[in-house]
Amino acid sequence: MKRRLSMIAAFCLTLGCAPVASAQSEAGGAALPRFVMTNAEARDGTDLSGTWTYSIDPYRDGMAGFHGGEAGEGHRRYDPRDVDEITRQDPTALYEYDMRRSPEATLPGSWTKHAPEMRHYQGLVWYQRAFDAAPKRGERAFIRVGAANYRTQVYLNGQLVGEHEGGFTPFTMEVTDVLKEGENRIVLGVDSARDEASVPPPVTDWETYGGVTRAIRLVTVPETFVDDAWVRLERDGQIRATVELEGPGAGGKAVEVGVPELGLTLSGETDETGIAHLAAPAPDALERWSPETPKLYEVSVAAGDDVLPERIGFRTLSVEGDRILLNGEPIFLRGISMHEEELGENPARIMTEDAARALLTEIKEGLHGNFVRLAHYPHSEATLRLADEMGLIVWSEVPVYWRIDWENEATLAVARGMVAENLLRDRNRASIALWSVANETPVSEARNRFLETLIGDVRRLDPTRLVTAALLSESQEEDGTVVSEIADPLAASLDVLAINTYNGWYGGLPLEEVSEVRWRSVWDKPLIFSEFGAGALAGFHDPKLERKFSEEYQADVYRETLEMAREVPFLAGMSPWILKDFRSPRRQHPLYQQGWNRKGLISETGERKEAFGVLAAEYQRIAEEGRE
Ligand code: GCU
């Protein structure tokens, strides 16, 4: 706690925020997560995925009584007691819940899939399961949740061990002093409700998917352990490692980072706060990571009796004028956007490695892509590790989306906490090239201040990657030609500019005029078309009329937009909207949408639409001939 506080203090000293001890934020300042637990999946422990019982609580009766005080004993669903046994002993006892005999569900996975009536449920759901443990002396135990949407309370054996706000980043709570020998009972209270101060606010263009969407694990580590390890190649040719130990023996401890295949060992010692900064010149034999050669090295981080394994790709990123450079060479990002939603007619945001592989393979092999925009929030670690393995460059983003409460200090603190949790979880992923701080946020003084703060946080936590944001553009007619440009002051603070442009779908420009639109930029910076596209219901053909939502119309929007894109010399990449149709409560046309956003190039079951072939052909051409 002392060290992490000092880390928070250091972080907050530079940011001017009030150092806080909790993993969450307080008004006026973000906090680094209390624990990072790099590569937690590799740690010893117990996977608590599987069968849990669940109980809905739309009026949050389990949190507080109707009079506003503490929940009555007969309502405390976080309590591990055996209600059946108690009421056998005392038939007059009144309990209006019984977690042990509640309906069962499989976690992880959003509650939309637990039962038909849960499809549109929003609110609080309690989950419980039992598990056996055998705590060992000198070992520390944690509960780690990969993600739960949107607010979560974690109870172990009836004791609140932590809370978290945010639906897409992991949280880790220490339970060393609460874990029992033999049977333990864990309860999660997950509340999907968001308000105007949330990140994101209630209105988005995607399904909320409330509940526990990524794995829950009991993690055990030595008393002093490697909590945060970041190993990377930097532009000066050095391989650097920042290692932070957690525990009573964190200070003045020898640390070794090994890359056996390179015969490389970085050695050093932690300072009094438990942090070590190591560096060594990259060996000549180093094979740099790229989409064509996604080379990953086994890395070990050793301190005392703790050894943490990782798999890391080494590469550099930079911008030079309006080019993005990967390992010093210009690269054009042939991409597509993607939500975290598996293929199938009733997805529940269960992104297993196989589910992610099915989607990323459509990008890499189907579309001849080398890039994926993981919209609009941090995706699962399984997806990121797969992008490392398969060779896809990643745009990672936090859900600072549309109408954020820019003036609200608590909202800023939550957003900063999400940035920190996102970057600290994923800094070892070679595939991530871009950190995005916002999507389509209307320009205002308050919004600029808010986003400048996030950009500052990103640069402090990771100066090795590029910062971007999906901006809005402005267009005007000049001598009969529509000229579009980026008129967003935030562009000055970004490394890579990005624009969502929907000519031909939104706005009144006739489809056949889209290819004539010209782009102007006063910035000598790379531009990514981070979104463009159109909706189409797979199988709806309308070759004569070409109404919107026909496959023909969508394919022509792609043809016209790609023709326009060829005329933008400072364009460095594209991630059209979107790989797959995805659930969105805002999209309710009874024939074409039925609660799905149909801008996918493939349907929810993976059926390719005509536009898929249009983009694939363009990316194949670019891959073989370059853009010019
Ligand atoms: C916006 C937004 C997406 C949305 C898309 C659409 O650009 O960024 O989240 O789904 O447009 O309208 O389909």
From TrEMBL:
Gene3D superfamilies recorded: Galactose-binding domain-like (2.60.120.260), Glycosidases (3.20.20.80), Immunoglobulins (2.60.40.10)
Lineage top rank: taxon: Bacteria
MF-aspect GO terms: beta-glucuronidase activity; carbohydrate binding
Keyword Hydrolase: yes
Broad enzyme group: hydrolase
Keywords: Glycosidase, Hydrolase, Signal
Signal sequence bounds: 1-23
Record EC number: 3.2.1.31
SUPFAM superfamilies: (Trans)glycosidases, beta-Galactosidase/glucuronidase domain, Galactose-binding domain-like
Matches recorded under PROSITE patterns: GLYCOSYL_HYDROL_F2_2, PROKAR_LIPOPROTEIN
Domain Glycoside hydrolase family 2 immunoglobulin-like beta-sandwich: residue ranges: 224-315
Biological processes, Gene Ontology terms: carbohydrate metabolic process; glucuronoside catabolic process
Domain Glycosyl hydrolases family 2 sugar binding: 114-222
Domain Glycoside hydrolase family 2 catalytic, residue spans: 318-560
Family, as annotated: Belongs to the glycosyl hydrolase 2 family.
Name of the protein in question: Beta-glucuronidase
Record organism: Parvularcula dongshanensis
Upper taxonomic lineage: Bacteria, Pseudomonadati, Pseudomonadota, Alphaproteobacteria, Parvularculales
